[in-house]
Amino acid sequence: MSLSSQAVLVTGGAGFIGSHLTDRLLADGVTVTVVDDCSNGDRRRVPDAADFLEADLTDPDALDGHLDDIDLVVHLAASKHVDTDRPHAQFDANTRMTRNILEAMADAGVTEIAYTSSSTVYGEAPRPTPEDYAPLEPISAYGASKLADEGLLSARAHSHDLTVWNFRFANVVGPRLRGAVIPDFIEKLQDDPEHLTILGDGRQEKSYLHVEDCLDAILHTIEHADDAMNTYNLGTRTTTSVDRIATIVAEELGVDPDREYTGGERGWTGDVPKMRLSIEKLSALGWEPRRSSDEAVRRATREIIDEL
Ligand code: NAD
C-alpha cells in the first residue's frame, strides 16, 4: 500500500517514536492526525501541520467521530511505565487502549493498522530469535500486554476485514528518547563526571536500532506486504552491552568515570538481560538497517547530548 495521499492516525504521536513518524509522514505528503494524552509525550513535538487530539485512549469514547476519514492507524500509544507494585495497571491500560482502537476502527470502517509490539513478548529466548519462536513467555506485565494486544489483533484480522502489520521492536534509540539507558547515563555523567552508577552487572547485551532505521522499516513494510496479519522483528543483527554504552556516552562527553554496579545481573525485575532478534523476514522484503547497534547508540548519544 502506498501511503502518499492517505490519511493516517498516529496514536502516541507526541512520544519519542510517534513524533518522528509524524514528521516523516508529513514530509511525505501524508495527512496526519495525532492522538496522545501527553502522559509521557510532549504536545510541542507535534507540528501544526498535523491535527492534534489530546485524549486518553483508555476511554472507549476517545476516538468517536475522529476516524471517519482515516485510511490507516499506526498504534504507538502505550504505557511504558513499569510499576512493580501494580503491574496489572500497565497491562490493563495497554490492552484497553488497543481494544478501544479496534472497536472504533470497526465502527468507522477503517481496515488497516500497524502495531508496535516488542521483543519482550519472547521473554528469555535463544538468540537470534525468529518471529515463529515458541513458546512466547514474557516476563513482565509490559511484555504480557504486548502479547495480549497481538492476540486481539490476530483475532480481529482473522474474523473481520483487517490488515495488521505487527512490529516487534528491539530497543529503539535517537533524538527525543527519554527514560532509557542512554539519556540516563548522559544526565548522570553531566551531574557527576567522576562516577557512574549502572543498574545491573553491565553485561546486559541487547540490540539497538536507530529511530530513522525503525521508520524506514515500518514504511517499507507497509508498502511491500499486505497479509491479513503479519509479524516482523525489527532490530539490528548486532548487540551492544550496557558497559559498552557507558563507554560510548563517557567518550562522547569526554569523561572517564568510576563504575558502580547495583541490582544484580538484570538490574530490575522484568528486564530480559540478553536480546537479539532475527531480522531475516524483513531482510527478505528488502529492508536492512543502515547502522549497527554500536553506531545507533553512538549517534543517538550525540543527538541526545545536543538537545539536553
Ligand atoms: P513513548 O512513551 O515516548 O510514546 C508513547 C506515547 O503514548 C506517549 O506520548 C504517551 O503520552 C502516549 N500515551 C500513553 N498512554 C496513553 C493513553 N492512555 N492515551 C493516549 N496516549 C497515551 O514511547 P516510544 O518509545 O515512542 O514507544 C512507542 C511504542 O513503541 C510503544 O507502544 C512502545 O511500547 C513500543 N516500543 C518501543 C520501544 C523503544 O525502544 N522505544 C521498544 C519496543 C516497543
TrEMBL record:
<protein>
    <submittedName>
        <fullName>NAD-dependent epimerase/dehydratase</fullName>
    </submittedName>
</protein>
<dbReference type="InterPro" id="IPR001509">
    <property type="entry name" value="Epimerase_deHydtase"/>
</dbReference>
<comment type="similarity">
    <text>Belongs to the NAD(P)-dependent epimerase/dehydratase family.</text>
</comment>
<dbReference type="Pfam" id="PF01370">
    <property type="entry name" value="Epimerase"/>
</dbReference>
<dbReference type="InterPro" id="IPR036291">
    <property type="entry name" value="NAD(P)-bd_dom_sf"/>
</dbReference>
<feature type="domain" description="NAD-dependent epimerase/dehydratase">
    <location>
        <begin position="8"/>
        <end position="235"/>
    </location>
</feature>
